Amino acid sequence: MSTYCTAEELSDHEKNDCYYPKGGISDVGILKTGNGITDFSNATQYDAAITAGTLKLITGIKAELPEPSVVEGENPLACGSETIVDGNDYTLEVKDFNVNATNDEFYRLANISQFPGLIFNMCSEDQVRVVAAKISTNARLVIPISNKEKQHYLVTFKWSQSVQEAFPVLYDAPAGIFE
Question: Is this model's pTM higher than 0.85 or not?
Answer without folding.
Answer: yes
